[in-house]
Structure formats: structure tokens, C-alpha cells
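testing teh design pipeline on a random one, pls ignore if ur not involved
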């Protein structure tokens, strides 16, 4: 009888472990990232109110409403499924951006664009969670990029709110017309390059509207 009980307990423990393992390890840094982002945004909001710019007030209010919707959902998703490292990275970059804007508020000229871009990034994440069957935030969207004319262009990208920064955050492994890479939902800038020809960066929302996990983009080839 004791042997049967011991075996039953062992089987139960193994099932429990294997079930939890499917979710992967939780990233405890999420709470810190979200808290720091919220604090920086709150400080930006106070400065915007003092500044009295109606465009900025509207952009901030819209972003803050979306943030208040998204953050609790992300925390629940992280508890249940654990956000992918790539997902956490995009949230950390937003944290860095709003912290920079907060510190350099008076000298940052594109505040309205940055706030609007972060809003769209947050909205893409939230809508994708809602449209995913399991309502989780682990989704990755397979992005395929073609050029509208000739092929053989390398595809580069960065986060939308990095528009004014001279960086290349992403590079697709293959040139067009075979450029494919996975992205977490968000708002991105993509462009084409070949030798000394550089295309204009184009803004694109990468998200799932009805559970699909693929998106095809056609970028204008530079002359």
C-alpha cells in the first residue's frame, strides 16, 4: 500500500513539473520595467501639463490610457506563460526612451511623435493578445519583406520611436525576395539597402488581427 502511495505521489509531482515547465521560466524584471516606465511617463505628464501644449496633452492622455490597459494584461500573461526575452526587450527599449524624454524634455523636439509611436506599439501588443486564441503575449509574427521592383536588397529595421536615431537594430538574414524574420507585435520602421542605395524608412504595425501569425510587406526600392 505504501509503495502504491509513493508511486502515486511521484507521478503527481512529475506531471506537475512537466505542466509548469511548458510555460518556461518567468522574467521577474517585467515588474521593474513597467514600474519605471509608468513613473517616467507620469513625470512627463506633469511637464506636459505645465508646458500647456494641447497636442502633447492629447498624445500623452491617449498613451496613458493605453498603458493603463496594457500593463495589467502583460503582468497576467507573464505570470501564466512568461514573456519571451524579445518581448521584454521591446518593453525595456520603451522604458529607456521615455526615461530619456523625461530627462531631456526641453530639448526633445519630436515628443508628440514618440508618444504617438509608443501608443501604437502598445496598442499592437494589446490587440494581438486579445486576438490570440490563448490570449497570451508570446506571439511572434513572421514578417516577409519584398521589394516592389528588383530583388537583392537587404532589409533593415528599428523601433518606430527610434526614428530620429541613426541605428540599425534589425537586419533580415536574407535579402529580398527571400527576407523573412520573426518579430514580436509592435510598431516598426523598415527600409531597404543595396550598396550605396538607401530607401526611406517606412512605418509598419506588426500585429495579429484575427490570430494570424504572418505579415507580408512590400517596401519601395530606393533609386
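output:
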Amino acid at each position: 500500500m505504501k509503495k502504491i502511495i509513493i508511486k502515486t505521489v511521484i507521478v503527481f509531482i512529475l506531471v506537475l513539473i512537466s505542466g509548469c515547465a511548458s510555460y518556461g521560466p518567468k522574467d521577474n524584471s517585467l515588474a521593474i520595467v513597467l514600474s519605471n516606465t509608468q513613473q517616467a511617463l507620469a513625470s512627463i505628464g506633469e511637464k506636459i501639463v505645465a508646458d500647456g501644449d494641447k497636442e502633447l496633452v492629447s498624445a500623452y492622455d491617449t498613451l496613458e490610457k493605453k498603458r493603463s490597459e496594457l500593463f495589467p494584461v502583460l503582468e497576467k500573461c507573464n505570470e501564466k506563460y512568461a514573456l519571451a526575452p524579445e518581448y521584454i526587450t521591446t518593453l525595456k527599449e520603451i522604458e529607456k526612451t521615455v526615461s530619456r524624454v523625461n530627462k531631456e524634455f526641453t530639448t526633445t523636439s519630436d515628443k508628440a511623435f514618440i508618444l504617438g509611436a509608443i501608443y501604437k506599439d502598445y496598442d499592437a501588443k494589446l490587440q494581438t493578445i486579445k486576438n490570440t486564441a490563448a490570449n497570451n503575449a508570446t506571439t511572434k509574427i513572421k514578417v516577409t519583406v519584398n521589394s516592389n521592383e528588383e530583388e537583392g536588397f537587404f532589409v533593415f529595421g528599428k523601433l518606430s520611436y527610434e526614428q530620429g536615431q541613426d541605428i540599425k537594430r534589425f537586419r533580415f538574414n536574407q535579402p529580398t525576395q527571400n527576407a523573412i524574420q520573426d518579430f514580436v507585435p509592435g510598431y516598426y520602421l523598415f527600409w531597404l539597402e543595396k550598396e550605396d542605395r538607401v530607401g526611406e524608412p517606412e512605418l509598419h504595425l506588426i500585429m495579429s488581427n484575427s490570430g494570424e501569425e504572418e505579415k507580408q510587406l512590400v517596401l519601395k526600392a530606393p533609386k
